[in-house]
Amino acid sequence: MTVQEPCVASDVQLGDDGRLRHLLTLDGLPRPVLEALLDRAQEMADSGEINARLSGTAVCTLFFEPSTRTRLSFQRASQRLGADVLAFDASTSSTTKGETALDTFRTIEAMGVRGFVMRHACDGAVAELAAVAGPGTALVNAGDGRSAHPTQGLLDMLTLRQAKGRDFSGLKVAIVGDVRHSRVARSDLHALRILGAGEIRVCGPAALLPDDATLAGCTVTHDLDAALDGVDAVMMLRLQRERMAEGLVGSLEDYHLHYGLDMRRLRRAANDVVVLHPGPMNRGVEIDDAVADGPSSLILRQVGNGVVARMAVLEALLG
Amino acid sequence: MTVQEPCVASDVQLGDDGRLRHLLTLDGLPRPVLEALLDRAQEMADSGEINARLSGTAVCTLFFEPSTRTRLSFQRASQRLGADVLAFDASTSSTTKGETALDTFRTIEAMGVRGFVMRHACDGAVAELAAVAGPGTALVNAGDGRSAHPTQGLLDMLTLRQAKGRDFSGLKVAIVGDVRHSRVARSDLHALRILGAGEIRVCGPAALLPDDATLAGCTVTHDLDAALDGVDAVMMLRLQRERMAEGLVGSLEDYHLHYGLDMRRLRRAANDVVVLHPGPMNRGVEIDDAVADGPSSLILRQVGNGVVARMAVLEALLG
Amino acid sequence: MTVQEPCVASDVQLGDDGRLRHLLTLDGLPRPVLEALLDRAQEMADSGEINARLSGTAVCTLFFEPSTRTRLSFQRASQRLGADVLAFDASTSSTTKGETALDTFRTIEAMGVRGFVMRHACDGAVAELAAVAGPGTALVNAGDGRSAHPTQGLLDMLTLRQAKGRDFSGLKVAIVGDVRHSRVARSDLHALRILGAGEIRVCGPAALLPDDATLAGCTVTHDLDAALDGVDAVMMLRLQRERMAEGLVGSLEDYHLHYGLDMRRLRRAANDVVVLHPGPMNRGVEIDDAVADGPSSLILRQVGNGVVARMAVLEALLG
């Protein structure tokens, strides 16, 4: 996949009229656009809405990396809008060997499919296809490389708003774990900045924190206790087991000792602290059962919010 | 997956009001509940009914063991009730590695999915999840370990009723094959007892018959000719090829010689005997072509009854 | 799978009343039947029609060979007609090991599925099942062995008609590549003859051309320049990489040198030449980027026509 010059996701996703054409990243998204998506998602959550706005519209889940949760969540969102779903799992498809992602995309687009929910291991891969998509076609980035996972960012913000109200200016949030390799963390950071979060703390071992502009404006610490002190929300990240093989983390036990969230540590946070995790969880590694299943946990509410957040996005792009 | 104490499927599936909340086993099911499901399934078979009772409802096929026939049958049943189907195939999913079945279930439940059709290699696995399911969630056991496959039991009873009438009190039934490892046989035994079958004969090599209370009240024999003598119905079981590797069966030829149903042997049965098999068949091993495709065979009718039996169950649980 | 005598696809697919019951091959299809399918497909293409003619009808994609594009195209076609789709991928299914294709088909048919879209590696496999299908069941051949891929032939003819008009009598068409192993080429040849194409040229290396009656009436050449001279349409075929291993083709470079379509060569064709390819393309092997993405290429239009051609077929068989 090559285009003339590297495309900038935040430019590609907005039409000349300022309307959202694709959702590639939360980075650079105008605050009113972001808040309108959250408001609509909340409305759908409150009403349990099932409509037929996308009846006759086909949405393709185009996954070049395997995923089950995100794919199912988008599938359910599409169903609740009356859309027809087509699944293309490039990670198991043998027939498209040798075909480029661009040819695969163009082929399915030519079938009259209007919505694409795409995941890809390469940064910018979704934006590259969005840049060449036809005028009626919309792409949703369901995760590209380490860059962005914007609907996860949306559902996390929706979850925080439900717990803490719409005004984030007094909110202290800690993001803990492998921020370096996490598209979830990047989308959360984008969204928290847009919504004006009061303080963003980022915590993890040095080898798992980015050394670029990702953390601009954040309080960075390698000490979990310091990160948790008085925070209103903790956003835990999944530890990918390949970090061990890469030598970035010593052992699961070691990681848990320093960066695992347990009840004892959580007591440093505000009394009404809430805990989020994008799942799937490594229980006993980055998070203990007592926290994951405890009263502070919003982890299952995140999952439910994922469906309505994705409904709001699909409706905005295709409705 | 652990819960405080081992849950008893027959307790978990009935609400305090006696209403069926889940379908985990036919064991202990009140006869009127069982007969109501069969009556409704028959009504749907007669009318070819397609309705929209589950429109807007999501049903997830949650298979931790591979299956094609059962999954397709439940999918078709869901479609005929207007439900949206989500497929989760844990046997091929790589993304949920390390996630427990409980977390997978809770996650999909949190997406607003109300019906779960679950298959799992462990006895009691479906009941364990049913015990922790939310109030609006219903689980259907599509096969757990060797314990139960209740919708197969239902469709087999429906098929027998169509052929032999509703009164089973004079009915002589033979179940032949690997009863020890068969959840199908257990669910058939549960149902036949509840419906008051006149005589239940169980036949197979000693190594493939259970040595516990499963066969209480049955006539047990290792002689197929004796088992078939004058019976009204023969329920053949599939021979899993791994029994050879386990040393429980000598060879396919040997098994066929002693326990394969052929036309010569079938002549010992009643003139209007009917033959059932849950499929997929090992032709030439447990059953010969002439029997499988002959006038006594109800094997394809079983498949059709599977769809309406599952419709009746899903409608009762989710409608 | 065995039947008494080898069944002839063109006989099986037409009922005694001359009505199309299955679509197995374009070979021997009466011209009015073929043209009616093309006319209906064109009507659907023009209107973007989405209807509910197959509401409540189940269509099963029964693939014994992997395919993504064709399966998705049929799935979209089914959705646009309101049908319910069931997918059976025998190439990944482990549960039906040992079960014959006939038993698999009969089982799914017994679930009340009326339409089957089937792909199989063996010539005649779809026709064999069609010969034993029940009266309400229709099969569509989505590719069997090297024999036929009739909906590809239909969509190619639809694409040619849109570009060149309905009268093919003055049309010069070149089919280039591995005709010997190509069911696409055979279905195109059948259709072009029925529609009275003016001249059909077939071009490829000797090892990749058939030595039977397939090419009757065609101009055969091993020289691509000669094949292209003044032609109105070029139908390129995909080069399967296994031809190298089989020793039928020296190398990709060698194949490209002699049979790859580039802009320089394409200039030999008529000024308004159109280029077709069934996909997926081996870019830089049988076709260059400049041709594939150039103004003569109808390759993406073929994909769109595939959906409406398949809608027309499914509607004719099941509507």
TrEMBL record, chains A, B, C:
Gene Ontology CC entries for this record: cytosol
Top-rank taxon, per record: Bacteria
Binding-site list for L-aspartate: K97, R183, R238
Binding residues annotated for carbamoyl phosphate, in chain numbering: R69, T70, R119, H149, Q152, G279, P280
Catalysed reaction, written as an equation: carbamoyl phosphate + L-aspartate = N-carbamoyl-L-aspartate + phosphate + H(+)
Pathway noted in the entry: Pyrimidine metabolism; UMP biosynthesis via de novo pathway; (S)-dihydroorotate from bicarbonate: step 2/3
Domain Aspartate/ornithine carbamoyltransferase carbamoyl-P binding: 21-162
Assembly and oligomerization: Heterododecamer (2C3:3R2) of six catalytic PyrB chains organized as two trimers (C3), and six regulatory PyrI chains organized as three dimers (R2).
Name used for this protein in its record: Aspartate carbamoyltransferase
Organism for this UniProt entry: Luteimonas chenhongjianii
Taxonomic placement: Bacteria, Pseudomonadati, Pseudomonadota, Gammaproteobacteria, Lysobacterales
